[in-house]
Amino acid sequence: MESVLGVGEICMRTLRKYIITDTLIGIASVLGLFVALFFIFDLVQAISDGGQSSAGVGVAAFQSALEIPSWIYELVPLSALTGSLIALARFSANSEYVVMRSSGMSLRNLALSLSVVALIVSCLTLMVGELMVPTAQKMLQTINVKSEADQQVIAQTFRSGHWIKDRDRIINITKLTKDFELSGILIFELNASDRAVKRIIKASSGSIKEERWNLRDIHVTEIYSDRLVRSERSTMNLNTLINSQILNSLLIGESNLTYLELESYIDHLEANGESVYRYKSVQWSKIGHLITVFLLILIAPTFIGFEGRGRHVGFWVFIGTVSGVGLYFMSQLLKSIGTIGRWHPVTYTFFPILLILILAYWFVINREKR
Questions:
Q1: For residues 240 and 166, is the Cβ–Cβ distance under 8 A?
Q2: Residue 188 has what DSSP assignment?
Q3: Lowest CB count within 10 Å: 161, 200, 222, 234, which one?
Q4: What whole-number distance in Å separates Cα of residue 60 and Cα of residue 45?
Q5: How far is the C-alpha of 281 from the C-alpha of 254, rounded, in Å?
Q6: Considering only 107-111, 197-201, 221-225, 269-273, which range has the smallest mean pLDDT?
């Protein structure tokens, strides 16, 4: 009896390994195909745009390559569902699932095997989103193909530059380099009582070291009720909460920040009494993204009947893929509506997930009745 149980356990392990391996290969293949297509399209567009500048094909290819982590992160949910469907559909079409069930594999064992796949893919998605995407985007910001003189410039938002609030200061920065060298700095210092401007500091350049700015070539204007006092200084040290990490948050955009970077920037905004809704929304979106990846793999068996009739397999793969695409567009639509209506981010993050779970449950119940 013990030997029979031992053989059965070995058989289950072999089946689990087979299911996990084939499903991961299916997901990786679909994801690789999607990313390759995006890379080719983006490379063609980059070469076309770069034709008017001095940039070569190598620079365009490097720029497109730096976008790959972002594409991977965005395409993982759809690739996870489609790859899982293809793997399970092959099991059904080749009657392998019938053999698995005859060998003693239950639906619970199938769910456990897919849970391992979902956990692996979710962890890899987390690594890509929290490590690779921010790093690649920061590198991408250092590339400027317009002119060699401005090659180091990575931030020049609007004509007037970046506007930042720092407690009782409003700071404007015209240009910022990858080494955090500043130029075109304008600082308005406000009274704590009536919020009127009490001093204007204008500096031609400066640098950032931790939470201290070293300004150079400074012109200071003191504003009093009855007069203005102007002075000039060669250097000035300015203590501020705006460090290099916060400036990074401004450069690469909230969607490309890590969860911890978002948390740090939210703390800074809250300390300055500014709205944090948009950044909280991105935080919840990151959580919802991982949960979506996990659940889409688990519900893949819902769309595959396992009846062993190959003529139905393609249809259910198509239905599952369309459901995944529909989930993505619904999430984006609800996010836009929720942002406008100032809904709590939890509502429009998890509603599409809850809906697809209800539909999956409905499919399962109807199949069981048949």
A1: yes
A2: E
A3: 234
A4: 9
A5: 10
A6: 269-273
Backbone angles phi, psi at 237, to 5 degrees: -100, 130
Q: Are 37 and 127 in contact (CB under 8 A)?
A: no
Parallel, antiparallel, or unpaired: how do β-strands 197-209 and 169-177 relate? unpaired
- What residues have CB less than 8 Å from 1, skipping those under 6 apart? none
pTM: 0.71
List, for residues 191-243, the tens digit of each pLDDT value: 877 778 889 999 988 888 766 788 888 999 988 888 888 888 888 888 777 76
Task: Provide CB contacts within 8 A for 12, sequence distance 6+.
Answer: 104, 105, 109
Tokens encoding 23: 């499903």
Please give the Cα distance from 165 to 167 (Å, whole number). 6
What are residue 160's phi and psi, to 5 degrees? -95, 5
Do the bridges between strand 228-239 and strand 162-166 make them parallel or antiparallel, or are there none, so unpaired?
A: unpaired
- pLDDT-derived band of residue 28, with 50, 70 and 90 as boundaries? very high
SS3 label, residue 217: strand
Q: What Rg, from alpha-carbon coordinates, does the chain have?
A: 27
Cβ neighbors of 321 (< 8 A, separation 6 or more) are 78, 81, 82, 85
